[in-house]
C-alpha cells in the first residue's frame, strides 16, 4: 500500500484539472502576448484565469499577477514593496518568526541592504497575539508580512486583526496564503489585505505557478524584468497551462470546500485518536483548535523524526518532518522552537498532512506501520 500524507508539501494534480489544461499544451498553445488569433485566444483564457482567481479571493482581476510560484510571489512582494517605499523615515519591515524560508530569506536580504527587520513571536500554540504586533509596529514600518496558515503546524492566524493594526500605522499588509486554500475563506477586501500569495501545487493544481495579488495603489519594484508582461510587474512569457491549472484548481477547491473539510477533519481526528491509543509518549505540537483540519504535527518522545520518516517511507507511507524545504536540514524545526518546544524534542517530530485522496484504511495502515517503527526505534534509542 502507498499512503501519501504529505499534502502540505505538494498535492497530486487532480485528473479533472489535468484534462482541462491539456489543450493549453497541444491546441491553444499561443503566446498570450501575440497579436494573432491564437495569441488572442490565449490572452482571453489568461483573462478568464485572472477572473477566477479574483472571484475566489474577492479581489479585482487587474491585481492578479501570475508568478512561477509562491517563492517568487513572496520575494517580489516583500523586496518589491520594501525597496519601492523606502524613505528616510520608513525603513522597517515586520515578519513573523514562523514564516516560510522564502519570506525569512527575503527579509534577510533586506537587512543586508540596510533595512530594519523585526520578528513577531508566536505563543505556545503557534499564534501571533495582536499585542505582539502593537509592540513592534511604528511609523517607520513599511510592510508587515504574516502567513495565514503555517506549513508545519497548520496554525491559523487572525489576519484581519493584524491587517487592521498594520493599517492604523500607515503600513501595508501581506499574507502568504499558500497553506490556507481551501481551509480559510480568503477575502482580500474583508480581511484588509494589500498583498497575498498563492501557489497552485498546494491545492491539486500544477507546480511552478503562483499568484502575487497586489494593491496597485502601492508602489512595488518588479523582481523580474524583461518583456513587460503583467503591465511590467512580472516579465516572462505567461505559463498558460500552469495558470489555467491554478485557476481551475482554486475554483474547484472552494466549490468542494465543505465536503473536503469534513473529510480531512474526520481522517485527521481518526489518525490522532489512533496514534494516542497505539503509541505511548506522544504529543501534538501547536494548537489543535486554531489549525487547519488537514494538519497533525506530532512529537514522538526519544526517537528521531528522520528515522521515523525513512522507516515509514520503506513501508510506502510518505510523511514529513516539517516543511519540505527543511527536509535536508537536521538542525530541528525553527517553527517548533518558536512555539517553545523543549530543544531535546526538536528533532522528534512528524508532520502528517491529509488530503483529497486519503482513506480510512490508509490511516489504519499508517498507524500500524508507525507503531511498529516507533517500538523498534525506541528499543535502541539511548534516551528512555
Ligand atoms: C507557507 C508556504 N509559503 C511558500 C511556499 C513556497 O511555495 P512554492 O513551492 O510555490 O514556491 C510554501 C511551500 O512549501 C509554503 O508552504
What would you say this structure looks like, in words?
With 384 residues, this protein is α/β, with parallel strands linked by helices. The protein folds into two domains: 3-10 and 257-379, Alpha-Beta Complex (Aspartate Aminotransferase, domain 1); 15-255, Type I PLP-dependent aspartate aminotransferase-like (Major domain) (Aspartate Aminotransferase, domain 2), CATH 3.40.640.10. 40% of the residues lie in helices and 13% in strands. It has 13 helices and twelve strands. Strands 2-8-7-6-5-3-4 form a seven-stranded mixed beta sheet, with helices on both faces. It has a three-stranded antiparallel beta sheet with strand order 9-10-12. The protein is globular, with a radius of gyration of 21 Å. The two termini are 32 Å apart. The model has no long low-confidence stretch (mean pLDDT 96). The structure holds pyridoxal-5'-phosphate. Pyridoxal-5'-phosphate binds at residues 69-71, 100, 102, 147, 151, 176, 178-179, 199, 210, 323-324.
